[in-house]
Each structure stands twice: as structure tokens, then as C-alpha cells.
Amino acid sequence: MGAFILAVIAICAGFLGALLGLGGGVILVPGALFISSATDWISPLTPQSAVGLSVMMMIFTGLASTISYMKSGFVDYKAGLLFFAGAAPGAIVGAMLNGRFNVDSFNLFFGVLLIVLATIMLIRDYMKPIDFFVKRAKTRTFTDKQGATYTYGYPISIALILSFVVGTLSGMFGIGGGALLVPALLVLFHFPPHIAVATSMLLVFLSSLVNAGSHMALGNIPWAVVLPVIIGGYIGGKLGASTSKKLQSKTLVVILRIVLLIMGIRSVMIGLIG
């Protein structure tokens, strides 16, 4: 029963992760911890093993969705590889810092992080465009299916610093980095939503390889339940990437706001209540 429930959660996590460029950890990590604490269906999970399970799933979620996005032409390969260069060392640092959390502190900080991200997305439409970084970068243009044209770009040094922070938080919380990177790409660098999500999933896949290796070395992978989770994540990733192509850009941003806010409030409440 426990393996089946985790597979279902992984399908949902992979679907939303690929749809929004999150990687799926925002769903799987709190979901796995809840199942572990509320039932006896699986062996108890620590925050470290839940994160280890999440990064294993994100390898396959990221792979499935990245392949799909590659076929659609939405992936910015140059940007994705540059962000990976900064995120990879950050993922190693984050995996080591993850060992300092207990369940309550992990849920609290995890929730605060998601609420901050949701808030950024909620106020984005009311903020004046932040052109500071785009004006100092080599730009490119993209026109989506609705005819909207975007001009976007990023200074290399800022991109590396940002991606290092993203990688560190990804290693700490098992969220793949997309939940952090997508808002930054949208707000700071003016990426088109579909390009931001697709490029984020490339980063999720590449950084998850490094992340998984780090958590393996630290003994954080619960191997007994890995298989159903990676199968579910792969299926969900393919479904999410396929669905994303059919949605308008504004719809993606709305869904992203709602998912982050709900999951953030839930995790903070769990962390405070204990």
C-alpha cells in the first residue's frame, strides 16, 4: 500500500513539477513525510531521506520532461548549461547542510521558502518591470503562440551567483531548484514563461544527478521505496510536459502561484504545530 501511495504522489509531483518547472519536490517531500508520520505503510522517513527520495525522482521527472520540451523547441540550452555550472557546487553544499534539520525545523523553513516564492509571484504583476539586469546583458527574443514577443537576457556573473543559491537550496530541501529559478527567470531576466519552465527542467535534470550523488554519499537514499517513486515521477513528468504545451503562458503563472502558496502554508503549520 505504501509503495502504491508514494507512486501516486510521485505521479502528481512529476506532473506539476514538469508543468511548472518545479521539479516536483514541493509535492513529494511534504507528501512522503506526511505518509511516513501519519501511517505505518512505509518505514519512517527523516527530512534527509525524504529529500534523498525527492532528488532520485527528479532525475527521471527532469529527464522525461526535458526530452519532451526539447522536441517542442522551448529549451534554452546555453542558459541551462550556464545555470548548471553554478548550481552543481551549490547542490553539494546544500546536501551537507540538509543534515542539520529535524522534522519540525525542516517543515518550517521549507514552508517559509515556498511562501516567499509564492509572494514574489503574486506581486509580480503589480511591480514595475525590472530592467536592470536585462539592460546589462546580451538579449534574445521569443514569440509565443499567442503572438506575444519577449526580450530576455542575463549577465553571466549574476546568473552564476543566482544558480549557486538555487543549487544550495535545492540540495537542502529537495525541490529541484525550479521553484526558485522560474520566478527569478520571469521577474529578473524577463524569460517567456514556457522558455523559463523548459530551461528550468533541464537544470532540474542535470543538478539532480549531482544532488543524488551527494545524498547517496551521505546515506540519505531510502532504497526500499525508490523504484515506485521514480516510475511515478517519470510518468508524471511526461504528462506534465505534454500538458504544458497546451496551456497559455498566463495560465502557467497562475498555477505556479497557487501551488507554492498552498504548500508553503501547509508546511509552516506542520512545522509550528510539531
From TrEMBL:
Keywords (A to Z) from UniProt: Cell membrane, Membrane, Transmembrane, Transmembrane helix
Membrane topology, as annotated: Multi-pass membrane protein
Keyword Lipid biosynthesis listed: no
One GO CC term on file: plasma membrane
Subcellular location: Cell membrane; Membrane
Signal peptide interval: none
Transmembrane regions: 50-69, 81-99, 105-126, 147-166, 196-215, 221-240, 252-273
One Pfam short name: TauE
Family, similarity comment: Belongs to the 4-toluene sulfonate uptake permease (TSUP) (TC 2.A.102) family.
Protein name: Probable membrane transporter protein
Organism the protein comes from: Caryophanon latum
